[in-house]
Amino acid sequence: MRLDKFLATVGLGSRKEVKGLIKKGQIKVNEKEIKSDKFQVNEWTDIVSYEGERLFYQKDFYYILNKPAGVISATQDNYEQTVLDLFDESSYREDLFPVGRLDKDTEGLLVLTNDGVLAHQLLSPKKHVEKEYFAKIRGVMTEEDVTAFSRGLVIDGGEETRPAQLFIDAVDLVTNTSNIRLILHEGKFHQVKRMVKAVGKEVTYLKRIRMGNFYLPEELAIGEYRPMTEEEVHQLEGK
Fold first, then answer.
1. What values do phi and psi take at 33, rounded to 5?
2. Is 108 left (phi over 0), alpha (psi -120 to 50) or beta?
3. Could you tell me the CATH superfamily of domain 3-55?
4. N or C end of the chain, less CB within 10 A?
5. d(Cα 194, Cα 178) in Å, to the nearest integer?
6. For helices 116-123 and 230-237, what crossing angle results, to 10°?
7. Which CATH architecture has domain 131-211?
8. Domains 62-126+213-237 and 131-211 share a fold
9. Which residues are catalytic?
10. Is the pLDDT of residue 8 over 90?
11. What's the pTM value of the predicted model, to 2 decimals?
12. Tens digits of per-residue pLDDT, 10-59?
């Protein structure tokens, strides 16, 4: 692997930025100063260092974000704050992207990675990866709704949904509200809101709490993110 590609891959900077570091003699390979960006390194065995600190090769990166409302699930936007805008310089990578999307006003579990294979596995309709949501509802959800969701609904636009599992956690007859959890096996546009609307109610708050076997960590505050552990990635993969 070319030295400049190695440095960019490990997140030291863009391809242009790392070329500048190399030319200034700030990069060493096996304790020798290297000034050629075309220098070939073995990413697994060579010792590459910057300012005396060894750089370890990592191909794929995985982060878990507790997405706040008001932020869009995109990599860049000229007008709106994106989920990548929440990352600091030490974690930001140009190749990161959100796996799927959450609506601007929706909170909760969002995975960001540069692993396209994993993203495909999680989003492919053929995989039927479960996604679980918590929602607050204006209106009283009933057992009839549970049955209707379990059979699949026809939502606005004439679209048909796959069967979904609806759990009614709480109902308040005084305020005419409900708290629910909903497990989906697909990802249609605004699906939770549209399914609830199809039974005559309205979502007032929505949060994703699970993808596959991986739950949003309780200790991760709104707007916080962190790298995922190897075990957590395996949970996402269903292993």
1. -70, 125
2. left
3. RNA-binding S4 domain (3.10.290.10)
4. C
5. 16
6. 40
7. 2-Layer Sandwich (3.30)
8. yes
9. 103
10. no
11. 0.81
12. 878 888 888 999 998 899 999 999 899 899 999 889 999 998 888 888 78
